Amino acid sequence: MREDLKGLEISRKELQMLTNLPVNHELINILHPLQKFLRNWLVQIQGSEGVTVLVLGLTVIVLAYIVFDAIMSITFATSLHLPSWLLLLIFALVCGLIAQVSLYLIWKHKLKIVKENMTPCLQILLNEVERYNAIIQAIDINDQIEAAGNIGVEIKERRKVIEALKLTRKDLVRALKTERIFRENKKFIMKNTDLFSNNLASLTAMQVAEQASEHGKLLNEALKIALDVQQEMRRLENQR
Known about the structure:
The protein starts with 11 loop residues before the first helix and ends with a helix.
């Protein structure tokens, strides 16, 4: 990825921090890290230090087996009359199954938290973040195609495109922060409608006074988000 694109993407970790919700949390498959480790190990074996890597890997496996066999020899496991290698395999499968079930339960719990706190405004913002990140990924792929020798795919006025992406990122971050404030203070806002209305009136006055400036445009966007969130909160309150 080129330097001007680095840091523009809104990562999952940053998104979770901005929303204070485990959004886009993925279910971890314990087989994937294992497969990645094995692939890297095989690649290293094929390298210049392949023999050393192979010997070290086999040494670790043998030592682990010896330690496990020693532990089994002093426990009741010997009464099962099963070879140590089979017990080790069963132990690894059981541990793997327990770990995968635990990860699944954690994923379901976080998914429930997101559903309970999801609002239409937040859903729209998450969709916009996804579209924004997709644009950055598309530009990155285009850069890779260009780097491969396809000069004709060069992005024209790239500097302006990057500047527009930076402004869009700031807008999305500000909108996510605003949505979180309204969502986490919903009860207080509903109990202090007059105070909330006065604040909106102040924002409106600021927006009108500075509507010709760039800052006025940003205030206008923030005001629109605030109004949308307030309307959604009132709609939810009326359903109770």
